[in-house]
């Protein structure tokens, strides 16, 4: 018992006379690893269109239920989020949403400086979340592998698709 | 060995054949079988067929007498139907064409006998679209038979009546399957039906129906005219009757010959087909139309009959040999075979509809030098799984396919390896 | 009852009926064997090959791979679902199906309730080994209800089996062969069947999806659902309305083996969008001032009390509702009782009232068996009299199609040909009012042609069923049909008799203790004897018999869920929640009391109409009248205080009510009129009040107008497509359609509710 206490005190004594290590944040920015799980963004396709297809999987997987969205169909055939809200006051930055996202749209970034004095400002809307870059997966475009028709991509024009068959023909 | 010509009595040669006229047919003893049959009771006629050991000539070799015995007879009041299956689409098989084009009355007489034996008053000849000339020949022959009192009402001095219609189908391999044929005849999609109930109990329009092959019917007049024992004496090694056998592919003289059941395969290949066509040794033979497993030269002495071929691991089928020689690439040949099955699947059940086109894609890729390491294991899996389909179509496809990937596996592997070698930069 | 035998499934012995379907046995016992093409309503097919298991006829015999759906149980059978090879085979079938399946799940509307997803997970297929291009298809336009996305098809044939074989539709088929089988119409176009929405439920993947749900899509796991009963007709199909945020997003059938089994009609499925209308009421409005519901209730109670003291008890009357619950109608009586009045009218006209009350009393007497939908399917003789089943009670039509499939003869006596007529053995077109005479001829026996044919078929049938419409206010016909069924009913051969009604709870209010003719109330309101009208969930201002009364009455209280002509006219409007958010009990056509429940969602009213009325009664100080009534739940309608209708015994939800009173003597048939008779033509889409407001139903509804038989049109010098002015003869005018399927001497008036088509809007919670 005495020995354990002395061991502890010894460590304390050792550090008492060293120079203190202080990071002068915010003047000095810390080095954040690129895979840090910070502020969530919605990325874009290589062609610049939004990647999110409003599949609701992030909302389903979110353990604190801080994501809420509503899908809508755009006239060009794409399904997008009409509304996409993330409540960062509730978000625990677990990254499940990024894992669940089938289109690599939702991604966590190394930014953590989101402090604010107004709590409602922590509810980020779609316009706050959407970025124009592709993020971690520069070449992936969901609509080009999906079988759904969108403007400028008819049936059979997606990656590894055969031309549409003709159901009126019985010929080989 | 001299072969007695029975079915081909009125058909001299396959090439340039003209249909045997009614007069000619009668002169050669035609309609004697029908007359003999009508002197017996229907049950007696059935017994003669049963005694003759006649086995279905469509490919499966099911005893005809046994098939007939399931048809309800004495106390049955409703309509029963007799159907002749002339949807001959088996690659390598063209015997029915010869019989229909050459001697239509023989088929009509056979159907008349069967109709009488089973007391069926309505018959159809289901003929494929490509045989539309044959359909016309049959229609003319039917009209003639009607004129001479072999079709229609009050036949041969009895109260029995028999109407026969020729149905020219739109043509699909699967229509050769008897239940799909019945569906097609009813105007439905040509999908096979589940058995039971068998067509003998519930077939065309829900009524008892018998579906037999052209060649099976053609044997009947002769059995009735000459007796069951005479018929049994025609074959070799205890097999009954003759069989029209053919050869196509890499042989010098492709054609059709009427031979006794049980003749060795080598006889056909070397004596009748006169050996390989381009000087290369034979590599493999598919013995009975496409849907039977391949046989290799070591097995060429197998007698051509149902049981011996089955013992050798294949099936007699329609006895139309398809011959490959050493110049044939078995990967390309397999692709060609699978292309046929992928195209002709009716699209009803999954392993056949989706599995066979996948096999085709893989085999084609291998042949084009794009094979991958796992492809052979996929092919092995698929060869097993396409056995569990709704009808016998995919198991039929499995026959030549499985034998090709087992017997000639080294050819497949060589293609895949050469690609890997190319990928590794070694030639 | 079939013989009980023992089979072994995966090492456990189970007792099953001999000949039972092995797959169904396993599913019933909670073992999930993957399957696609098998559907309980349509039976086995054997196409998908997914339900494979190792099956041996006996323990000592070798087993082999068989499809469980195609195998019937026999004694001693050993079924090995978890057999290694069978498991591998099932996985391989899924792999085959996935070869061409598109990468659509994130945007596919089936996701979350997709059978293919489920089966893929069950079989543990994870990695596609294929590298070849996927097959693609072009989609078809199939109308405003069903979306088509053919790439996702796994060719299980369920859609054509349902649409063609089960629902007897002819415009959806399978095209092509090999691995190119296409399911769709020959050409783009609206699906003809009134039951096309079931394709969505039947399809195991996302080929057929709900076009309306798709517009404001949400995943099924996010929907809030409470089991309810459809309000679109008197059949009473059980439904699962799904809400999210402020809106009803979709309606799905809820399985109920005694009623609708697995399916429902398109009117019910797509007709629920009236819940979302922008015109839905959320606040009370008294003399043009908007206020909280509670305050409105106070104001209304005070005003009613005032009128009662000033003008006496007889100055207040109620208009009950055929689409509101028994509870709400009982609460209306309670309010009136608190004010000393007992004047209620639930029907639109005396003729309707007589017909419905007679029919309901005959049904509730249980003298003759009333067939349920599954019972109808097994009928071997069907006679439909007086109406168009497809339009007036669609699911009865689907049940009869099942009987027709089993070769049951179907006879129809009605003034106008409907979509069921093409399956009829024989149908008779006869002018309205003359049907009763024909039914009497059938009952009398003899006769010739049609009558003789029906009589003979009825005589030889083992389980005959007679169906009669009460929507056309022909009490004489109701009585005649009752006499016919009674004469055909014997101890060993029961003859089923079913009447169907206008609205979801017409059968319930038809059994009400207090109900008088609406004409009497209208007359008193016009003469000033009645000073106040309490209108419960009913657009009375649009009803010919009551419109003037509403306009002239001094004080009208309207309780409803959406703005309509009555709420516009009313002095006070109290909001209540729409049916699918409400709770209560309604009686369907067979007199089956069915409870339904609802959800409170933001953006709409908060109280059910029964709660609103009970609150008024409470403010009126009528605590002894409403004693024991639960404001917030369904009542036991058998208790004295909660008694909604007289002389009824019932048990739990789903029980058939039974009345001790004998049916009143049927009125004798009026002599058939010799001139033209007007007849209201009901349509599946657009004729029912609530569903007609739903945008997709409004899109499918035909235009309002008049119809005449070609001969009648010719004699009046009218032609098709012309604007016919028949104001002199009948007081109507409109676009004329000449219809050879209409009986001579009939003026058809198409009943099409003015649809309120407004875009669906999502309101942020």
Question: How is this fold's topology laid out?
Answer:
The complex is a heterotrimer of chains A (172), B (427) and C (765).
Chain A: H1 2-16, E1 40-42, H2 57-61, E2 67-73, E3 79-87, H3 96-100, E4 106-108, E5 123-124, H4 126-129, H5 142-145, E6 161-164
Antiparallel strand pairs in A: 1-4, 2-3, 3-5
Chain B: H1 22-27, H2 32-39, H3 42-51, H4 64-68, E1 81-86, H5 95-102, H6 104-118, E2 122-127, H7 132-147, E3 163-168, H8 178-185, E4 209-213, H9 214-226, H10 228-232, E5 242-249, E6 255-260, E7 263-264, H11 265-272, E8 282-286, E9 303-304, H12 306-311, E10 320-325, H13 330-344, H14 350-367, H15 375-385, H16 393-407, H17 409-423
Parallel strand pairs in B: 1-2, 1-4, 2-3, 5-10
Antiparallel strand pairs in B: 5-6, 7-9, 8-10
Helix pairs in contact in B: 2-6, 2-9, 3-6, 5-6, 6-9, 13-14, 13-16, 14-15, 15-16
Chain C: E1 4-9, E2 12-17, H1 22-28, E3 52-56, E4 64-67, E5 78-80, H2 84-98, H3 115-123, E6 134-136, E7 146-148, H4 158-166, E8 173-175, E9 182-184, H5 198-202, E10 208-210, H6 211-215, E11 224-225, E12 228-229, E13 238-244, E14 247-253, H7 266-270, E15 284-286, E16 289-291, H8 293-311, E17 316-319, H9 326-338, E18 344-345, H10 350-365, H11 373-377, E19 381-385, H12 389-392, H13 394-405, E20 410-414, E21 426-429, H14 435-444, H15 449-460, E22 464-469, H16 475-488, E23 496-500, H17 506-509, H18 518-527, E24 532-536, H19 547-552, E25 555-560, H20 565-569, E26 572-575, E27 584-587, E28 593-596, H21 609-619, E29 648-649, E30 658-659, E31 677-681, H22 695-700, E32 705-708, H23 710-715, E33 723-726, H24 727-730, E34 732-738, E35 746-750
Parallel strand pairs in C: 1-5, 17-18, 17-24, 19-20, 19-22, 20-21, 22-23, 24-25, 25-26, 31-35, 32-34
Antiparallel strand pairs in C: 1-2, 3-4, 3-5, 7-10, 8-9, 11-13, 12-13, 13-14, 15-16, 15-26, 27-28, 29-30, 32-35, 33-34
Task: Using brief descriptors, characterize the structure shown.
heterotrimer, A: Alpha-Beta Plaits, 5 helices, 16% strand, elongated, B: 427 residues, Rossmann fold, Ubiquitin-like (UB roll), de novo design (two linked rop proteins), 3 domains, four-stranded parallel β-sheet, four-stranded mixed β-sheet, globular
